[in-house]
Each structure stands twice: as C-alpha cells, then as structure tokens.
What we know:
By secondary structure, the protein is α+β, with helices and mostly antiparallel strands. It folds into two domains: 2-83 and 165-198, no CATH class; 87-160, Roll (SH3 type barrels), CATH 2.30.30. The protein has two helices and eleven strands; from the N terminus they run βββαβββββββαβ.
Amino acid sequence: xxxxxxxxxxxxxxxxxxxxxxxxxxxxxxxxxxxxxxxxxxxxxxxxxxxxxxxxxxxxxxxxxxxxxxxxxxxxxxxxxxxxxxxxxxxxxxxxxxxxxxxxxxxxxxxxxxxxxxxxxxxxxxxxxxxxxxxxxxxxxxxxxxxxxxxxxxxxxxxxxxxxxxxxxxxxxxxxxxxxxxxxxxxxxxxxxxxxxxxxx
Length: 201
C-alpha cells in the first residue's frame, strides 16, 4: 500500500513536471514519483493515493519513526563532517590538531594540540564566481594555546575541538519538532524548491 506524503512541481524552461512523495508500506521507504507533466498528455491523478493522515495508526507511526531516524542520521553525518573536516573557521573557534605536522624550521607540532583560532590565511589565486576558493586545503590557521603562544598549522591538520551533539539528542529534538508540527519533510524528498501540499500531519 502507498500513501501520499506531499507533492511539488518542478518548473522547467517551457514545461513543468509534477511529483508526489509516497510512503510504501511494503518496502518501508519513501518513494518520489512523477505523476504528471506538461510535456505530453495523460498522467495520474493525485486522488489515486490516500493521504498519510487517513492511514492506520501503525502505518503513521512507522512513517514518522522512519522520518525522524532518517533526518537525524543526515543531520548527524553533516555535523560530523563539519566537525572533523571544517572547510572554514573564524576567530575564536577552537581547533585541535589531528596529526603531527613539521614546520620548515624543523619544529614539530604534535597531534592533540588545542587552541583558539586567532589568525587565518588562504593562499592562491581566488575567483569570486569560479574555482579555487578558500577551503580546507589552502588555508592555514594560527592557534593561540593556553600559555599564550601561537602555532601555525594547515586547516587540513585540524578538527573542531569539543563534542558533537549525540545522535539520540538530535532524534529527541526532531521528535519534539514533529509533535509541534514544525518537522520539515521536504529534505527527505527530491523536492528542491517548495512543496505544493502536505498530507501527513
């Protein structure tokens, strides 16, 4: 059985395509289905599928659990990447070195050195709307240590200091948002603009 969750329109240069997100009870997955288009005649009616709000309670629970778990996993993965491999930092951020680095004068900066960013510099020819923008590979940072000294290392040798929000805490936060009617389903679909209608809450 399939229940519709939401629908949206994808506008092209001269045509539009219409999509619906369906919760498939057989696979336990959300499917993105093109049900109509202006490119040719025919298509399907949105009334073909019942809404999630009309589904049995166990189906609604299964969908909501999947949505929270999937969103929490995506949020955690993105946060983990930004934590372990930051592409940009600002003054005051705390970083810790993840590997031993050796400066040109032979000085070694050990892994595990923690400090506050007090300087950043990116090197190369940059283009506002082009390639080679400042990033993790071409940026160096100055870290002010607890004793007041400053060491300079590549951003690629650092991660953010501190702990990530646990996956369970993210999930609890999303459950609360869902209960308040503020959970965003769009990021779990292939919609990249805005939803036309929502049928699950």
